[in-house]
């Protein structure tokens, strides 16, 4: 019998076969995200996606959903928003949800661009072994990040979050995601992100190439008009349309993801790709959502 759930739902409702991670649930305390990343995919299915607002009656709905979900299940915060999107600093909904989940015995994966996660370090440390955090860092170039991710905290703050989480015993993944042709796909950028991630204490690197949708492509093309013709050719003429998105040509993706995999190996990081075909590049037993690190604590503790 199918269980009716409101806000804590099985992840990956589209059933993308390129998602190789184990089953988990997803929970978005907010609708939309204030980081306003040009490459963001949620604008294709969430109205007013860059105007984040809390889910109505969130806490009561989470409580009711958890009565139907087995203890010990994995819940991801969040995949269609950032759980630490700007309103969270005042509202604290993610903190309340995090406490509910962990106090009831669930395992939690956090995916964010915000150092605000450090506010909840006390909660995370009380539940070592049942939490893992992923911090997205696409580039260390402050000028590029300011254009690509205008509402997000700057990369230096995210690296500091990686360091402090790792020192507190929380296993951390850095997501170099997305890798965008002509912007952050060069060896210098990839090596820079990977080396600084390892230096800060991350244990795991995830890399993925940009997948184009019409709306996020339009934003990128407007911001970088000199690169738009090359992107248009790569994606819409030479690329592949897979699972509702345009992918860059396979030869390009193999080249750039191999570059990231080799950098991860040089710095002794586990490595995964996300929604790409090239599983042979990955660390055996590791998953792009970082769920393999649940049950572990950082070696820095």
UniProtKB/TrEMBL annotation:
Keywords, ordered alphabetically: Iron, Iron-sulfur, Metal-binding
Top-level taxonomic group: Archaea
GO molecular function, one term: metal ion binding
Residue intervals of the Radical SAM core domain: 19-248
Alphabetized SUPFAM superfamilies for the sequence: Radical SAM enzymes
InterPro entries in the record: MJ0683-like, rSAM, rSAM_sf
Transmembrane region(s): none
PANTHER family with a match to the protein in the record: SLR0285 PROTEIN (PTHR43432:SF3)
Name of the protein: Radical SAM protein
Species, as recorded: Pyrobaculum arsenaticum
């Amino acid at each position: 019998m199918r269980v009716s759930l409101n806000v804590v739902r099985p992840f990956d409702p589209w059933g993308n076969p390129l998602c190789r991670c184990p089953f988990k649930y997803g929970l978005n305390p907010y609708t939309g995200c204030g980081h306003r990343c040009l490459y963001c995919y949620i604008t294709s299915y969430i109205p007013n996606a860059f105007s984040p607002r809390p889910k109505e009656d969130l806490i009561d709905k989470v409580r009711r959903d958890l009565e139907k979900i087995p203890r010990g299940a994995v819940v991801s915060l969040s995949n269609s928003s950032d759980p630490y999107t700007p309103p969270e600093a005042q509202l604290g909904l993610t903190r309340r949800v995090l406490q509910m989940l962990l106090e009831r015995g669930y395992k939690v994966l956090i995916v964010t661009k915000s150092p605000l996660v450090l506010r909840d370090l006390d909660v995370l440390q009380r539940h070592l072994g049942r939490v893992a955090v992923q911090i997205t860092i696409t580039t260390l170039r402050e000028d590029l990040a300011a254009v690509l991710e205008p509402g997000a905290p700057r990369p230096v703050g995210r690296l500091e979050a990686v360091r402090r989480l790792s020192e507190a015993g929380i296993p951390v993944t850095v997501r170099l995601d997305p890798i965008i042709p002509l912007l952050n796909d060069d060896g210098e950028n990839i090596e820079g992100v990977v080396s600084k991630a390892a230096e800060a204490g991350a244990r795991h690197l995830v890399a993925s190439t940009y997948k184009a949708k019409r709306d996020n492509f339009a934003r990128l093309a407007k911001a970088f008009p000199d690169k738009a013709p090359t992107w248009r050719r790569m994606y819409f003429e030479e690329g592949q349309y897979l699972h509702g998105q345009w992918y860059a040509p396979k030869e390009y993706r193999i080249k750039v993801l191999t570059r990231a995999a080799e950098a991860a190996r040089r710095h002794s990081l586990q490595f995964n790709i996300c929604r790409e075909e090239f599983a042979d590049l990955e660390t055996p037993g590791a998953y792009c959502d970082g769920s393999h690190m649940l049950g572990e604590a950082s070696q820095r503790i």
